[in-house]
Structures
1.
Amino acid sequence: MSKEEVKVDENLVRQIALLARLDLTKAETEMFVSQFKDILDYVGILNEVDTENVPPAYLFSANQSVIREDEIEPSVPTDEFLANVPQSKDDYVVIPRVHNEQ
Amino acid sequence: MDLHELSIQRAHELLMSREVSSEELTRAYLARIERLDPQVKSYVTIAADLALERAREADRQIKAGEGLTPLTGIPYSAKDSLSTRGVNTTCSSRILENYKPFYDSTAIQKLNSTNAVLLGKTNMDEFGMGSSTENSGFFTTHNPWDFDYVPGGSSGGSAASVAAGLAPFSLGEDTGGSVRMPASFCGVTGLKTTYGRVSRYGLLPLVSSFDTIGPMARSVYEVALVLEAIAGHDPKDSTSRLELAPLYSESLKKVEDLRGLRIGIPKEYFVEGLDTEVNTALQTAIKQIESLGAEAVEVSLPHTPYAIPVYYLILFAEASSNLAKYDGVRFGSSERNVDRLLELYLKTREKGFGAETKRRIMLGTFALSAGYYDAYYLKAQKVRTLIRQDFQKAFEACHALITPVAPTTAFRIGEKITNPLDMYLSDVHVVAVNLAGIPALSVPCGISNGLPIGMQIMGPHLSEETLLRIGHMYQSQTDWHMKHPPCWND
């Protein structure tokens, strides 16, 4: 959509997949390359619209204050929260290690 | 008359006179679901035990005669994106297959507080991404009018459950037509509410700036009954509107005609690609609405051709952010046979998400990534401003707009699933409403080759009363909403 064409190839798709934390298969990667091209071509139609001096639309509700009094309310009991956690220990959420072993 | 044929009003009368108990009503629906839903496949979870418990509670309340409302003891279904305490809430995604929230969404909690009876949770396109329910991680829902056709999406299970007599009403959710399009395809009445009219607390988000919860039922009057039960400000949703919600059903009782209303017909919605029979049905409906005293005028929404690319770009971006939390750490499925955290993320998400969800996460990650943000996301948000301004100008000239809901009737299962862009284009008449945050009602207005046609009535922010008035008067003169699919009598 910018002046230079976006080059959609397997490298770009793999790079985006890593950012999105998706471990795509080879077949998915190939399929996305061709579908991305079609979809990005299609949304390119927005280039026809002059948006010079047009502000972006932000989340809109009526202008209203939603600040409440700072009152203490009961929170979720730890055991109810932990019931959905795949792996926990002593009220902590367990995850695999982040780094390689030294 | 079988119990599933009762309107909510009639069922309420029978409950109050204690000719029927909520438990009998609930058992009748559960038995019908067991018999018919293996073909329709509208439910992903049936909460039979909880439903019967709730029904008995309703019967006690009715006996005591305290705090009764028109929905006390009335069964219903809810889209699986609404959190239900202790009941699976999956958004029809494998990644949430066994997820049981520890709290109710506000809309569900409001229905619980009056002892309406949740029968179960309805199928949808995964996380709301689709127009046919074919993107469900579990199975495809069938259109009750013809099982070879899609029910529309993403609230396809909700629409099918109402159309097939498997629930008298359903709570749907509309991000870009997800209440209106399935309502149209299945011949039921559905309301996309003003952004913020119904609290989103406990709704699993797809696009936070588009998502709205709305009722689906057989008639406008029943939709009004449900809306007044769930609308209103909620301290737990800072975007919910502070304005008091009126008693919508009461105001419908006073309506006699549509005098004094000016109805805009946006010319951009009646162009090439619109099915001839859909167009004919709409022209007939517009004449009937004029005969009730309304005046029809042509209006223009010039940026309509850009609504789909704007909608999808913003959806890709917001959805990719909203779905980042499904990572196998705190809830949902989790691939634990891994060495490191990064692998947990990659494998859990690869296995848990379906193809369309991955596609949209990928496109959103791309549209938000360094170097492309201005060209895609920011550009789309600017054009969104122009689309909102189109509506503001149109509503200076009229009170409401009438268009088709979809350019065609329901399509065949499998027809569009291999071409995502083609599927996106079927949303051409519904997405602009979500970009502007305005309400829109979908009302049955015809049948073509055995499949229903829907009319869309849009209005300015918080104009639900006007939209319901138009829809209700239309239904008082026509019987399209009373027509049922062949499986109705099964």
2.
Amino acid sequence: MADIDVTFDTRPLDWRTAVSFAGIAAVGLLAVLLPVFASEYWLVAIIIPFLILSLAGLGLNLLTGYAGQISLGSGAFMMIGAYATFALQLRLPAVPLPLALVATGLIAAAVGVVFGFPATRIKSFYLIVSTLAAQFLFEWLFVKFPWFYNGYSAGSISLPDGIELFGLDASSLEGRYYLTLATVAILTLIASNLVRSQTGRNWMAIRDMDTAAAVIGVPIVRAKLQAFAVSSFILAIAGALWAFVYLGSAGVHSFGLTRSYQILFIIIIGGLGTIRGAFLGAAFVSVLPLSLDWLSQRLFGGNVDASLLQNSQKVIFGVLIVWFLIREPEGLARLLSSATAPAASLHPRKIQRSSSC
Amino acid sequence: MSFFLETLIGGLLSGTMLSLAAIGFVLIYKASGVFNYSQGSLLLLGALTFATLTGKGFPMIPTLAVTIVLLILAALAIERFLLRPLTNRSPMTLFMATLGLAYIIEGVAQGVMGAEVQALDLGIEDIPIFVGDILISQFDLVAAGVAITLTAILSFIFHRTRFGISLRAVADDTRAALSLGMDINRIWQIVWSLAGIVGLVAGLLWGARQGVQFSLSLVVLKALPVLIIGGFTSVAGAIAGGLIVGAGESLAETYLGPFVGGGITPWFAYVLALVFLSFRPAGLFGERQIERV
């Protein structure tokens, strides 16, 4: 693993740790102060969706990048998050939003365990059946039964009282930004501790070779279901934020299969099995369409057909996915760490093992 | 009773269309252990090329030849730039790579040939015929005939020819096949070409039925439960799986649908596949994998 450092250095703080602490502090400070100097457009259209997509990527990365269980159902779990939060806020208005988000996460975690259960019997791409089943089943469920969208027209849902935090109105731009930032920060902290715990080690053992992991006594069934639960928890909260903080009102179509692909692409490009990867991948996915737009404006004065732009974006994504899988399976995270730390050569690259033995 | 039979037979026949789409996956899975998510895009590419060219007034037979050549070229490119660099990587990596490939093929195909729905007329009349008092779609019968013929040919190739045996060897253990001096790159080229052609056949039939458009590439999502039920490694399984899914969907929509509000076709096949998975993880005709550490 690229992110496990085994050092025998007993000094309390060497320069690399100091640099990385300083880096985290700088990023944190920048994030907190961002509303002061970023324009409204940047916050609403780029930063908030980027943060939420990072969170979704993080959720999927725990499942796919760390535990090695592939999922094409990220959209479904985000959808569950949005609809569960909506139901809780609508029917139990007394429950404050943060608590509702936690409850939403728990509901999604339970659903995740149900759809993850086949993972205890099947493996690799067979799992996409189970996760796709979730995707199609919930798309159908939330459209078919008016209870879920409270009979609103067009089936789109939005929070009845807006975004309210303990009596304070957080619907303002800053409120939405800080709510997103705080949620993402807390969940990232939990996730990055989790992957360094026994649970995280179990996941990685299963990913690298589940039969061998079972032989050395890793509780396979429990660890896989844990991965599904935690991943669904995070994805659901990301979905709720996406629906109500970013979009304002959402429907099933906001969480379709395309969303599932997008989240998967985020972690492939960003880096499978790294915490940073989700953020780097999400940044990339958010910025690429914008820069393509900008480029076409600059080069062709906006005379480019929209569908052509969309298709070329598709091709670029496809090429990048293939390129990263071939050249840099650890994604942008790996590229970044080899660019910033010359000592990276001390960590030999993971040797690719044949899957057939 | 005759209504039940009609529903059942209609379902079985539309199931053969699913089988047709699924056979392409089986071919590639058997030869390279890859679940090829881009099969749906290959199907779209073939059908779209054919429809665009015939739409411009080119005669059918030369167009077919041109389309097949294009698909073979695509297979060569895929082998060279995707499969070869990814040799010996995990099945999951390969699956994700084919997902990227699907995006490339769809983007290129639609960028060049447009995203409008194109009508495709193969000259098969779709006038329902009566057998006794049961209504049967003539088009479905032709599709079923094609599916059965393709299956017979492919089964023969797999089990009776030297090429088929080397295919199975490569799928079974790529490294051992390599050390025996098998040219796996050549084998992959041939298999992906074949899968492209099978995809073309399926794409033409599906396209003639519902128009050639982007949604054709979603056939991949319809074929997946078929593969799970039938088993990834068996051509006969693809047929059986298709029949089960087709009949199941048709009966469920008719008899179960009204109780839950209808529109259950998108997920019914998946739930059925999950049920099958929990009892027979390798599918009806699949080979059980034994894993060693």
